[in-house]
Amino acid sequence: MRTLTRYLVARFFQFFAVVVVSTVLAIVVVELLLNLDRMLAFRGGPRGILEYLGLRLVGEYASYVVPIAAFLAAFLTVALSAYTREWLAVKAGGVSLLRFAAPLLLCGVALSALAPVFHESAVISARQAWNRGTGGDDPIRFRSGSFWYQRGARIYNVGLADRARRRLEDVEVFERDPSGLLRRSIRARNVELLDGLRWRFRDGLVREFDPDEPASIPRVARFTERVIEMADPPDAALLAADPAALRIPRLRELIRARLERGDRALEQRRILAERVGDWTSIALLVAVAIPLGLGVERTRNLGQSAVFAVAALVGYYAVRNVAAILAAQGALAPTAAYAGLAALLFAAAAVGLARTPR
Question: What CA–CA distance (Å, rounded) separates 78 from 80?
Answer without folding.
Answer: 6
